[in-house]
Amino acid sequence: MKLIVVGPRGKMGKFITEIASQREGIEIVAGVGPVGRDYIGKDIGEVAMLGKTIGAPVVDDLESVIDNCNVIIDFSTVEMGMRSLAAARAHGKALICGSTGFTPDQVKEFHDAAADIPVMLAANTSKLVNIMFKLIQEAAELSGDVDVEILDMHDNTKLDAPSGTAKEIGEIVADARGVSLEEEAVYGRCGVSPRRHGNIGFHSLRGGDIPSSHTTYFVGTSERLEITHHSGSFKSFAAGAVDAAEFIQDKPKGFYTIKEAFGL
User: Fold this and answer.
1) Nearest CA to 55 among 43, 39, 72?
2) C-alpha span between 258 and 219 (Å, rounded)
3) CB–CB of 238/18 below 8 Å?
4) Where in the chain are the domains?
5) In which residues is NADP(+) bound (predicted)?
6) Residue 99 labelled as part of a binding site
7) pLDDT digit string (tens) for 197-247?
8) Is the peptide bond before 104 cis (omega within 30 degrees of 0)?
9) Are 64 and 35 in contact (CB under 8 A)?
10) 125 in a known ligand binding site
11) 37 marked as part of a ligand binding site
């Protein structure tokens, strides 16, 4: 597999570069960073702070290197993610995108691109998080008439709230209940704000360097069930992203999910 990493200086991109560089059968051919960064033109090993060079440059134009790869991994920003999608579709390259914060119309563009390329839009590439999703689905189906609240915690540079993972949890709960998340979601509370029966609550904490933490509360009378995943670093997500790239590299065009990559 010949791989391009978009955003190799980012908190996820650094780990993706490190893990991919250590995998047999993977060659990193380039990295892509934003225009104007002082590391453009340097080796991706240096940019990702691996302590070594690996012979792949970091450029600021994906189009200039895209024909050298067969898979692109992008965990950068919404804006760069949309540019990566357009380039991947134009050049027939597989794309794994893990950025969050896309609008519904932008998400639709990823699904539309599946008519031409293999593509995966994955809010969370941790295997244990995806096992957590299955547990939440079962709990939502079996717990009956209880209140559900979702808490996500991330570092103080996280841009979107709730997180993409929290939104996915909400969708799982709503689907299990046969309701619309758009109609039932409540985002934080302030002042006089009584809980309406059937609401799905979202709460987001941001601080320090918290990598990722999600808890779903199923609250009944005199009892509650909590399903939680904590991440100690972004390495688990990066490893899953590289696993997903290996999974998708030889797949035909279509929209794939991280659950398929993990066999879940």
Assistant:
1) 43
2) 29
3) yes
4) 2-121+235-262, 127-231
5) 37
6) yes
7) 999 999 999 999 988 899 999 999 999 999 999 998 889 999 999 999 999
8) no
9) no
10) yes
11) yes
- Supply 257's token pair: 């999910």
158 is known as an active-site residue: yes
Q: Write the CB contacts of 17 (distance below 8 Å, at least 6 apart in sequence).
A: 5, 8, 28, 31, 44, 45, 47, 48, 50
User: Is 123 marked within a binding site?
Assistant: yes
Helix (H, G, I), strand (E, B) or coil at 123: coil
Per the annotation, the verdict on 93 as an active-site residue is no
What's the Cα-to-Cα distance from 224 to each of 67, 149, 217, rounded to whole Å? 53, 11, 7
Distance of CA 56 to the CA centre of its chain: 25
Q: Which of 154, 167, 214, 229 is catalytic?
A: 154
User: Whole-prediction pTM value?
Assistant: 0.81
pLDDT in tens, 141-170: 999 999 999 999 999 988 889 998 899 999
Q: Is residue 122 a known part of a binding site?
A: yes
Joined together, the tokens standing for residue 68 give: 């050298």
* For residues 76-89, average pLDDT: 95
Return the structure tokens found at 82: 């949309």
Fold (CATH) for 127-231: Dihydrodipicolinate Reductase; domain 2 (3.30.360)
Any idea which architecture 2-121+235-262 has in CATH? 3-Layer(aba) Sandwich (3.40)
> Which among 14, 93, 127, 158 is annotated as catalytic?
158
For the segment 30-59, what is each residue's pLDDT rounded down to a tens digit? Answer: 999 999 999 999 999 999 999 999 999 999
**Contact between 91 and 66 (Cβ < 8 Å):** yes
